[in-house]
Specification:
Length: about 400
């Protein structure tokens, strides 16, 4: 049973603290800098309370809260990190006033901690050391990868459009060649024999585009002579090659960590055709302990794929859009998982087709399938069973 509730409102360079204690009439407020000296000062201020009866709550603030969270965990405090939307909803339920400052926010977080303490999940050091940071960086790299590919295609449409239709331009070897020959004009400077020599210098990979094909495409190309487009293209190709290398490096880290800390959750999730080690790891890292969710509905709300509902008087209706109030990283992971199981798994493929036949557009049908998948995964993890595809799927 907690008797002291601490709310912390965190910004980039400072944090406000409010302490509510049953033995004191008024709340206590402090403001600290985000540095080691003030971390120690906070610990000193909290030392007068029974540590086992202190509950500290802070909002999830991207990356700002991690250092303070780590410090408090090392001091053996009970700490919870909550979704800012929960705090906002709590504030709206408490008052109609829109006055907002860091001191008041810390007070509101402390009051939320006091009211919600029976349901609040405590962060553990194990969760802090999870693969979440690595997986999110890998996710960010994947987005950069896709963006650069789109930009490279756009430039090639000016400088050498034939490469897009006649070759797989995004293989490692062809990207290395593109660094040296970013346009049809750059290829036409060489005869066939010298071009072969230059291609061998550009890449040692034997699966590259054939010299004769590149020579022929350049000779008949409608590409435009654009010097600055070539310079920009080379820059983007360099970045793409680096990102590809980094993605492979992160994949190795993730693979090693999975093999080192393999658990039954990975096996359960991977029993669903279409879910591999990468997406199962991302799912586990973002969801954490499945037992913190009382129902599949709560898991869906955590992902933010639940339908947005509007109420006016006695009328309640859904506008078909999702709330997007949950974990954005989990939402992207479950989208990728849904697309994969639709392609690979007869059960989910049939469900997706059923929703499409009912008139749902592609994205809505994928979201519906994603929520179906979340309900299935919730049941599998709760019951510690593997997925068995129904015979009539």
């Amino acid at each position: 049973m907690y008797t002291t509730f601490v709310g912390i409102d965190i910004s980039k360079s400072s944090f406000d603290v409010c302490i509510l204690d049953h033995s004191k009439i008024k709340p206590v407020h402090f403001k600290f800098k985000m540095d080691s000296d003030d971390f120690s000062e906070l610990s000193l201020q909290l030392s007068e309370y029974d540590k086992q009866k202190v509950l500290i709550v802070m909002e999830s603030t991207g990356s700002y809260h991690y250092t303070l969270l780590s410090f408090l965990l090392l001091q053996d405090f009970h700490v919870s990190v909550v979704n800012p939307q929960l705090i906002n909803n709590f504030i709206r339920s408490e008052t109609l006033r829109k006055t907002k400052n860091d001191k008041k926010d810390a007070h509101s977080i402390a009051k939320y901690a006091e009211k919600s303490s029976p349901e609040i999940e405590i962060v553990t050091e194990r969760k802090l050391d999870s693969l979440r940071v690595v997986l999110r960086e890998r996710e960010s790299l994947s987005r950069d990868n896709a963006k650069l590919k789109t930009e490279i295609k756009a430039i090639l449409n000016y400088t050498f459009p034939e490469l897009l239709t006649e070759t797989g331009i995004f293989t490692q070897s062809n990207l290395e060649i593109l660094r040296v020959f970013p346009s049809a004009k750059s290829v036409r400077k060489y005869n066939l024999k010298k071009l072969e020599k230059e291609l061998n210098k550009a890449t040692a990979n034997k699966t590259r585009i054939r010299t004769e094909l590149l020579f022929e495409l350049a000779a008949n190309s409608i590409g435009i002579d654009a010097e600055y487009s070539e310079i920009t293209l080379i820059s983007k190709v360099d970045r793409l090659l680096y990102i590809i290398k980094e993605i492979k490096r992160f994949d190795r880290i993730i693979e090693e960590e999975i093999n080192k800390n393999d658990n039954d959750d990975h096996t359960i999730l991977s029993s669903v055709d279409g879910i591999g080690k990468g997406t199962s790891s991302a799912f586990i890292a973002e969801v954490g302990d499945i037992d913190k969710f009382a129902s599949a509905k709560q898991l869906i709300a955590f992902a933010g794929t639940d339908p947005s509902v509007k109420q006016s008087g006695t009328s309640v209706h859904s506008n078909g859009k999702i709330t997007k109030r949950g974990n954005a990283h989990l939402r992207r992971t479950i989208w990728i998982m849904a697309v994969c199981v639709i392609r690979c798994n007869p059960y989910f493929k049939t469900y997706f087709q059923k929703k499409s036949d009912e008139g749902m557009k592609y994205k809505k049908a994928v979201i519906a399938t994603a929520n179906k998948l979340l309900r299935v995964l919730f049941a599998l993890l709760k019951n510690r069973t593997h997925f068995v595809c129904p015979a009539n799927a």
